[in-house]
Design goal:
GO molecular function: carboxypeptidase activity
Strand order of the largest sheet: 1-15-16-17-12-11
Distance between the termini: 13 Å
CATH superfamily of the largest domain: DD-peptidase/beta-lactamase superfamily
Function: Removes C-terminal D-alanyl residues from sugar-peptide cell wall precursors.
CATH topology of the largest domain: Beta-lactamase
Helix content: 25-40%
Enzyme class: hydrolase
Family: Belongs to the peptidase S11 family.
Radius of gyration: 24 Å
Shape: globular
Catalytic activity: Preferential cleavage: (Ac)2-L-Lys-D-Ala-|-D-Ala. Also transpeptidation of peptidyl-alanyl moieties that are N-acyl substituents of D-alanine
CATH class of the largest domain: Alpha Beta
Number of strands: 17
Order of helices and strands: EEEEHHHHHHEEHEEEHEEEEEEEEH
Number of helices: 9
Strand content: 25-35%
């Protein structure tokens, strides 16, 4: 099938410019700030430079554990034994479990996420895969599936080990998948403290107490790598909620990683607007269909379409719809048949969004198909 470009211009009262606002000075070796609502990177520095991820590693540990819950390999109320290996894990932060205990998976997840327990990480890994080594293979397999070429895991805890590496951008990818793939478990990351075996420990993410809109995710530290923090905030605006995700690596202290993360998040919210272009479920374009029971199909996006644009810069955005032509039935609901391209009026790309069929179009009867075949031949 040949493709033609079907375009239309929509004048919008919103900001758009080719030159992005300059971020504030951030006292971190590496960082990245992403607007998850608009799927846009707002600022970055050395975001692809490999570093020791330290306890940020546990983001992937948790993701694989969440996957085991999804696949019914684990249950939250299921108890797991504590092996000698898990109990003998005594470096770094701990949940303080021992071989006489049988903690529930829910408790181990809180120990992993809130208390940053290395022993909890080992117990969960063994519960999912039988051994830490098998679990690490699952972590690396998932990283490869996402195309994280600068990430390699050697353990489940984040303790420094030769060859273990990741980047600010890759850690942001893992965090974003936790938020989008497992919203039912994301609430663990907002918990400020957790008491297990009468021992109360605070979450290392200081922003949970400083900013009520911050609801995750993970703090880390390693000698030589400094202090790191993956943080996400979800703030309410007139056109809906807007989620930003920041990653800072290589800061000087616990307070610095929180302060620099807060600076990035606040700047992202004030320097950019997330503008809703189309609502979820709304037809963006109605196009002709051949050989179908219906003569037209409505094309739209799977979700609401947002773009992040610099605040206070009056201008217009241009949208273009590209779709298969001729569009021939049968068409399945959710089938991708085109792309919505959003640019500035000067042609600078802003976003590309897949366009899908909103309602299925079954194939027509024999007569209808024959008639449209003749029309297509003439066309």
């Amino acid at each position: 099938m040949k493709r033609i470009l079907v375009s239309f211009l929509v004048a919008l009262s919103l900001a758009a410019q080719a030159q992005a606002p300059l971020p504030p000075e951030i006292a971190a070796r590496n960082y990245v700030l992403i607007d998850l609502t608009a799927h846009k990177t707002l600022a970055e520095r050395e975001a692809d430079a490999p570093q020791d991820p330290a306890s940020l590693t546990k983001l992937m540990t948790a993701y694989v554990a969440f996957g085991a819950l999804r696949d019914k390999k684990l249950a939250l109320d299921q108890t797991l034994p504590v092996s000698r290996r898990a109990a003998s894990e005594r470096k770094g932060d701990l949940m303080f479990i021992d071989t006489t205990m049988t903690p529930k998976v829910d408790e181990l997840l809180r120990g992993l996420i809130v208390q940053n327990g290395n022993d909890a990480a080992v117990a969960l890994a063994e519960g999912v895969s039988g051994s830490v080594e098998n679990f690490v293979q699952l972590m690396n397999r998932q990283a490869q599936a996402w195309g994280l070429k600068n990430t390699e895991f050697k353990n489940v805890t984040g303790l420094s080990e030769p060859g273990q590496k990741s980047t600010a951008r890759d850690m942001a990818t893992v965090a974003a998948h936790i938020i989008t793939d497992f919203p039912e478990y994301y609430g663990y990351y907002a918990q400020r403290d957790y008491i297990f075996n009468k021992i109360r420990q605070d979450n290392g993410n200081l922003l949970l107490r400083r900013d009520p809109t911050v609801d995750g995710l993970k703090a880390g530290f390693a000698d030589g790598a400094g202090f790191s923090l993956v943080a996400s905030a979800n703030r309410e605006f007139p056109n809906g909620k807007r989620r930003l995700l920041s990653v800072v690596m290589g800061t000087a202290s616990k307070d610095a990683r929180a302060g620099e993360s807060q600076k990035l998040l606040n700047w992202g919210y004030t320097a950019f607007d997330a503008v809703k272009i189309f609502d979820a479920g709304k037809a963006i374009k109605t196009v002709s269909v051949w050989k179908g029971e219906a003569k037209e199909a409505k094309l739209g996006a799977a979700d609401a379409v947002y773009v992040a644009v610099p605040r206070g810069d009056a201008g217009k955005l241009q949208t273009q719809v590209e779709h298969i032509d001729p569009l021939v039935a049968p068409l399945n609901k959710g089938q991708r048949v085109g792309t919505l391209r959003i640019t500035t009026t000067t042609g600078t790309p802003v976003a590309e969004v897949p366009l899908i069929v909103q309602e299925a179009v079954p194939v027509s009867g024999l007569f209808g198909r024959a008639f449209d075949s003749i029309r297509l031949w003439i066309k």
